[in-house]
Design goal:
Layout (H helix, E strand, L loop, with lengths): L3 H8 L2 H6 L20 H14 L4 H17 L9 H20 L10 H16 L6 H18 L5
Helix pairs in contact: 4-6, 5-6, 5-7
């Protein structure tokens, strides 16, 4: 099976990969929002395997992810134009990174850029507290993810 992360890098489609667009889609589970939602965790398997296959440093992967996440969080302009689902997916990347660090899959700490942290927090806050049209299940997932990031990894989105 071809590594979708490597394919996304080669095609300059890392943002599409992170969001599970088209050929990069992996069916989700209950935690990721259901079968019709993209499973970001499976994508991280491709990222981990890509590091090995391309002899790429974790720092290089973090730079690629940081840039792609910023692009996603700024793609539609201000906070209310970025979908809550896209913001949640970006928070899931942070969650999965921390679980990989904790279980030893990744050895190097990711120094999130200030811009990424600012954008993620701004978009997250908007959707949790100001978006009246957010789906109830997605709002609950965002709330739980934010709480667990604080409790387990001492990382605060908002």
């Amino acid at each position: 099976m071809e590594n979708k992360f490597i394919e996304a890098i080669e095609k300059n489609e890392v943002e599409k990969f992170l969001l599970g667009g088209d050929e990069y889609f992996y069916h989700g589970n209950e935690w990721s929002g259901g079968y019709e939602k993209h499973d970001t965790g499976v994508s991280f398997g491709d990222i981990n395997n890509g590091i090995v296959e391309l002899f790429m440093s974790e720092e290089t992967v973090y730079q690629i992810l940081d840039k792609a996440m910023i692009n996603i969080l700024t793609s539609s302009g201000n906070a209310d134009n970025i979908s809550a689902n896209n913001v949640f997916e970006m928070s899931m990347i942070v969650w999965i990174y921390f679980t990989h660090i904790k279980n030893g899959t990744f050895k190097t700490n990711w120094k999130f850029s200030d811009k990424l942290l600012l954008l993620l927090r701004e978009r997250y806050l908007f959707h949790l507290f100001h978006n009246k049209n957010i789906e109830k299940q997605l709002h609950e997932l965002m709330t739980v993810n934010n709480k667990l990031l604080k409790e387990r990894f001492y990382f605060e989105i908002c």
